[in-house]
């Protein structure tokens, strides 16, 4: 055996160790984050925190909970996701069944990519400008609209991606039997791609509920549960942020607990979407 | 006049118990009407992208009338109360944090993607996908909490003193800031945040190399690493670079997590242990008082515009490269 043979195998082994190490670092970071949030948040998490709104002196460490932020976040993300869905499902279907790979389709997809890359703080600033122009104050509606703008490209791109992956045979078979494009979209594509569409909706919802920078300007923050679309609304990420900024350890502990609640919600959505997609896929023709 | 009755089979495709099927003409009308409605909806994303840019540019105009653009961008003094709006500390801070984050993220991410694509068994790959999804799903404020609790003390108590002692002679590593709220802390948090994204794009790009090429290289006796170096990477380098740039655009705009750990002092940083004040943090921290000082709102929305322009340049160029390489997009 010559020396050269040895060296390249040593390099091979070395690189492989590096790769496994990198893999471990990435997986370890996730574990570390989850562990920190769990270890800090769990001791401070009480039933009262989940079921009460802040009482007087809450931000000094007195009684109360973050129900205002939990409900506010669900309203904000739910409303935003609903509006985004109304736009994104038709857009994704149109891109696939009506225009395919045309020039206009290319521009729309590029615009979606560009929108997807715009950071949430810019959406927040834009939403704020929009609200100033309309004479609106920080409110649930403002937050919902801004989140809908933020979620639109996330949801549409995810749907477009799954719909494009659909095997063309089914669509062609339906068209050969005389279906119009609309019938193909509604009866074949939606049914066939339902798991992917649901995953896309939940993905956008998860992004929306975790986003703080866009609702900072537009939804405001309040200790009450919003009663109408014009009321300001609290949100979980901002509750974490504001509580962590307080100089009292009790309030900071609640920030950790709030972060844990937010993490649990988001991870449940992420894992749940896999489970739902798995359940729905039994309706699919393979 | 007898109605023509079509026998209905139990499974015939007619909802609402309709007997007469809609005529071809009406189905076509529906098809075209829906097509027009859908087309109008596809205008929304295109208009929105343009509208956001124009709206922020218009809000930036009042301050541009008072000061030339170059003076604003290169100015280093930020005292809105006295009418001094220098953006340079914020632009520099944004790039410092982003570059540190990307430098930390790229080697492990590319190696992980290579491992997944070239070495790992299918079962390992199956674990990795949900893992990356989880990492991507964690909200940025939670990354911020992790940064404040774990990374800032680590940088302040361990990393900074050690670096000052052993690497202090290198200009970028001198440490005069004992708190740990620093560019490095922001970079570490950012690196973890953009990791799932860079890994996913790199993996997609690596998958475009044909299996035949790999097999040919292995068949003539190359090791796997030799195959990666001379076949796989050579073919995919532009795509990987584009993926990294796209990851960097995510880092440029990241607000909450970075804002919580970088210290937010408007100065031009000189070392990775200095505090910084990136553009997104500037906007988020000061929106409350921006209506009370003249031109302050124009300055802050101008900061959003500058951030947007920086991101659009990087984003569009890397998107075009990736669209060409992959022929589709990634999620």
Q: Kindly name the structural category of chain A.
A: mainly alpha
Q: In this structure, how is the largest beta sheet of chain B organized? A: 2 strands, antiparallel
Shape of chain A: globular
Number of domains of chain B: 1
CATH topology-level fold name of chain B: MetI-like fold
Class of chain B in CATH?
Answer: Mainly Alpha
Major sheet details of chain A: none
Give the neighbour order of strands across the main sheet of chain B: 1-2
CATH superfamily of the largest domain in chain A: MetI-like
Backbone shape of chain B? flat
Q: What is the level-2 CATH architecture name of chain B?
A: Orthogonal Bundle
Mean pLDDT of chain A: 88
Number of helices of chain A: 12
Residue ranges of chain B: pLDDT <50 for 5 or more in a row?
A: none
Q: How does this model look, in words?
A:
- The complex is a heterodimer of chains A (286) and B (331).
- Chain A is mainly alpha-helical and 286 residues long.
- Chain A folds into 2 domains: 3-44; 58-283, MetI-like fold.
- Chain A has helices spanning 3-44, 47-51, 67-99, 103-117, 120-134, 140-164, 168-176, 181-192, 194-210, 213-218, 236-244, 249-280.
- The longest helix of chain A has 42 residues, at 3-44.
- Chain B has a single domain (69-326), classed as MetI-like fold (Orthogonal Bundle), CATH 1.10.3720.10.
- Chain B has a two-stranded antiparallel ribbon.
- In chain B, α5 crosses α6 (183-206) and α6 crosses α8.
- The longest helix of chain B is centred in the first third of the chain and has 43 residues, at 24-66.
- The radius of gyration of chain B is 27 Å and the shape is flat.
- Chains A and B meet through α1, α3, α4, α5 and α6 of A and α1, α3, α4, α5 and α6 of B.
Topology:
The complex is a heterodimer of chains A (286) and B (331).
Chain A: H1 3-44, H2 47-51, H3 67-99, H4 103-117, H5 120-134, H6 140-164, H7 168-176, H8 181-192, H9 194-210, H10 213-218, H11 236-244, H12 249-280
Helix pairs in contact in A: 1-12, 3-6, 3-8, 3-9, 3-11, 4-6, 5-6, 6-9, 7-8, 9-12, 11-12
Chain B: H1 24-66, H2 69-74, E1 78-79, E2 84-85, H3 88-119, H4 122-137, H5 140-167, H6 183-206, H7 211-219, H8 224-253, H9 256-261, H10 279-286, H11 296-326
Antiparallel strand pairs in B: 1-2
Helix pairs in contact in B: 1-11, 3-6, 3-8, 4-6, 5-6, 6-8, 7-8, 8-11, 10-11
């Amino acid at each position: 055996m010559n020396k050269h043979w040895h060296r390249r195998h040593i390099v091979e082994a070395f690189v492989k160790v590096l790769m496994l190490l990198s893999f471990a670092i990435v997986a370890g970071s996730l574990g570390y984050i989850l562990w920190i949030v769990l270890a800090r948040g769990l001791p401070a998490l009480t039933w009262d925190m989940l079921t009460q709104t802040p009482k007087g002196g809450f931000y000094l460490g007195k009684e109360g909970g973050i129900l205002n932020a939990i409900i506010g976040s669900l309203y904000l993300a739910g409303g935003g996701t609903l509006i985004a869905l109304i736009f994104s499902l038709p857009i994704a279907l149109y891109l696939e069944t009506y225009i395919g790979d045309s020039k206009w389709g290319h521009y729309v997809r590029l615009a979606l990519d560009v929108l997807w890359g715009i950071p949430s703080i810019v959406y927040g600033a834009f939403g704020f400008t929009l609200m100033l122009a309309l004479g609106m104050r920080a409110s649930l509606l403002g937050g919902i609209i801004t989140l809908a703008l933020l979620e639109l490209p996330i949801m549409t791109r995810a749907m477009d991606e799954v719909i494009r992956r659909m095997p063309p045979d089914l669509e062609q078979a339906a068209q050969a039997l005389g279906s119009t494009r609309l019938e193909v979209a509604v009866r074949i594509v939606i049914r066939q791609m339902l798991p992917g569409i649901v995953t896309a909706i939940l993905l956008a919802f998860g992004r929306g509920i975790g986003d703080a920078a866009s609702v900072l300007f537009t939804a405001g923050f309040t200790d009450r549960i919003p009663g109408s679309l014009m009321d300001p609304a609290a949100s979980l990420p901002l509750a974490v942020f504001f509580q962590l900024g307080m100089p009292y350890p009790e309030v900071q502990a609640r920030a950790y607990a709030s972060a844990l609640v937010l993490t649990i919600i988001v991870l449940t959505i992420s894992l749940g979407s896999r489970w739902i997609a798995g359940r729905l896929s039994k309706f699919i023709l393979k | 006049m007898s109605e023509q009755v079509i026998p209905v089979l139990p499974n015939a495709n007619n909802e609402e118990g309709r007997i007469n099927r809609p005529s071809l003409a009406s189905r076509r009308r529906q098809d075209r009407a829906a097509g027009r409605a859908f087309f109008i909806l596809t205008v929304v994303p295109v208009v929105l992208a343009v509208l956001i840019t124009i709206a922020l540019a218009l809000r930036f105009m009042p301050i541009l009338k008072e000061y030339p653009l170059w003076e604003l961008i290169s100015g280093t003094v930020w005292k809105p109360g006295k009418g001094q709006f220098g953006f340079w500390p914020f632009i520099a801070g944004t790039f410092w944090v982003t570059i540190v984050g990307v430098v930390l993220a790229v080697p492990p991410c590319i190696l992980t993607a290579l491992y997944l694509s070239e070495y790992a068994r299918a079962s390992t790959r199956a674990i990795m996908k949900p893992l990356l999804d989880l990492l991507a799903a964690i909200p940025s404020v939670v990354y911020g909490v992790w940064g404040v609790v774990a990374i800032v003390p680590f940088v302040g108590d361990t990393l900074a003193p050690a670096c000052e002692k052993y690497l202090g002679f290198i200009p970028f590593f001198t440490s005069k800031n004992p708190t740990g709220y620093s560019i490095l802390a922001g970079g570490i948090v950012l690196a973890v945040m953009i990791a799932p994204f860079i890994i996913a794009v790199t993996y997609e790009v690596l998958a475009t190399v044909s299996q035949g090429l790999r097999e040919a290289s292995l068949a003539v006796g190359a090791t796997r690493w030799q195959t990666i170096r001379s076949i796989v990477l050579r073919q995919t380098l532009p795509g990987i670079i584009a993926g990294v740039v796209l990851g960097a655009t995510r880092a440029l705009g990241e607000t909450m997590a970075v804002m919580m750990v970088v210290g937010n002092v408007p100065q031009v940083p000189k070392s990775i242990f200095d505090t910084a004040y990136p553009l997104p943090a500037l906007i988020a921290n000061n929106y409350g008082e921006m209506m009370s000082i003249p031109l302050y709102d124009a300055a802050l929305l101008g900061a959003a515009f500058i951030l947007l322009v920086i991101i659009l340049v990087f984003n569009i160029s890397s998107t075009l490269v990736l669209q060409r390489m992959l022929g589709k997009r990634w999620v």
